[in-house]
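Hi there,

I know you've been waiting on this one. I reran it after we fixed the sequence typo, so this is the corrected version. Both the input and the resulting structure follow.
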Amino acid sequence: MPDPAQSPGLAAVPEVRTLLEAVDLPIGRWDRQARLTFFNPPYVAWARSTPQRLLGRTLSELYGEEAWAAAQPAFERAFAGQQADYLRLLRHLDPPRWARIQVFPERGNDGRIDAVYTIAHDVHDDITTAQALRRSNWLLEQALDNLPWGVIESNAELIITRWSRSAQAILGYTEAERLGTHRLSAGVPEEERERTLAIYERLLRGEVDHWVQQAQYVRKDRRRIWVEWTLSALRDEDGRVVSLLTFVRDVTHQVDTHARLLHHAERDALTGVLSRRAIMERLDTALSRRAHDDMLALCFIDLDGFKQINDRLGHVRGDRLLVQVAHAIQDVLRRDDAVGRLGGDEFVVLSAVADLASAQALAAKLVEVSASAGYDLLSGLRVTASIGVAVVPTHARSSFDLLQRADDAMYAAKHSGKNRWAMCHQRP
């Protein structure tokens, strides 16, 4: 240990020296030339050296220019009268370890600062843990930003706290535009907001932990897209929901493709009206949802003279005429009505009616439009329609009986001269 006479300053005071030597941390005293003039026993072990090799050496001589470059700003602040600290990787250790060095000024009786003290704290585990955490966070950010899914996070007040690059690409809004804003402040269509808010509130109350839904979203450029939201409630250690994490992807192409496939599956390939299967499913659904007093009319349509068109003009012209009639029927129906092709030249129309008179009026209108549309301009040939009408619950209660009795009424119309309608007279 250095002789106190060669270690001026506070370290030369016996009581102070005893205290410094008792501290279980490496403590050193440095003069204005950054030479080590005092050190306690832990410093010797920490420096991996001997007292003789340490005393009087500068910091750069002991540990290298890189170490002095890290220490110099803190030393300058301490010699200016301020406490300071800095981080340094101790490369003289094997393996190297991180330390935080505190630097304190030593003031003499005259107020001058002729030396500073350093106290070294081993913070290697803290630094490496923080570095690992920063790297993990960086990797997570990179992963989230490069996912094909957009990532959105909001706090318990539904204020957005994360908005990834993929979210910007999908939804059109930048991170700067959405951070700090409410989740419902943009993008969610007005008609979807109440339902969406109810879902968020259920997640925040802890009633459900996850939710997946498809919904429309209005991008910044006002273009509507279909998106799939996967929402998760994130909880703290006490089990309280503190944020909502959302993954979002654009499913517009999938939705459009599904709609086209569904349309093709439901539609008759030639005429575009409902297929036989689809119109029968629509009939079964309408019957199952019908209230006790609701009336449902079914018009069974068979074209008159269509075989003559096919025989004389060919199937191409015949198909064209079928399309004309089907479209004319579709055009006079209400939005909730349905028309389907059973096959050949047979169609059925399904319509909710107020009474039997309304069903008769519908049938009369269908006879009229069928005759008007069923005209081949080049040949002058025309097809008309014989239509049978049956109503639930007046004439039948099941889909099979309703279709059968409308079919029977159609044959009655045909036998009565065609180009007309007939009402079923049977009872269920």
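Quick highlight: The chain has three domains: 4-126, 147-255, 267-423.

Best,
R. S.
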